[in-house]
Write a structure and sequence with these properties.
6 helices, 3-stranded antiparallel sheet, alpha+beta, 3 strands, 130 residues, globular
């Protein structure tokens, strides 16, 4: 049996609206704050049915290293344009007049800089909902 010491699994029911992503990012934000000695620069979430070409991904991050050092709040992931999000596939979720964004971030894969994760999930508006 192989050992996977770099993977964390949480017992969270599979769902789209009940806080699976929120729970995960809150957990890792707390971990990175409690264990700053680990110097974790990014936290992320990846659905198990995704395939990532890790060498290409890490090369991409390396090419943006300078930006990462000067801008503390970094988000990356699969972005869906508002027009697509307004369609049948996404149950017309973006048609509401309250929706002001140009892109919707899909949960298939996303990563945040540690300062952004801590700000949003521990210090920011997400904390008010917990």
């Amino acid at each position: 049996e192989s050992q996977k010491s770099d993977i964390t699994l949480l017992s969270i029911p599979e769902n789209h609206e009940l806080g699976k992503t929120d729970t995960w990012f809150t957990y890792v934000a707390m971990l990175t704050r409690a264990r700053s000695d680990l110097q974790i620069g990014f936290v992320g979430k990846l659905d198990s049915d995704n395939f990532v070409r890790w060498p290409v991904f890490f090369k991409y991050l390396q090419t943006h290293k300078e930006n990462m050092q000067t801008k503390p709040y970094i988000y990356g992931g699969y972005a869906i344009h508002r027009k697509t999000c307004s369609g049948k596939v996404y149950a017309r979720a973006c048609l509401s007049p309250r929706v002001i964004f140009e892109f919707f971030a899909s949960g298939a894969m996303s990563y945040l800089s540690t300062p952004l994760a801590q700000h949003v999930f521990m210090d920011g508006t997400m904390l008010e909902r917990k």
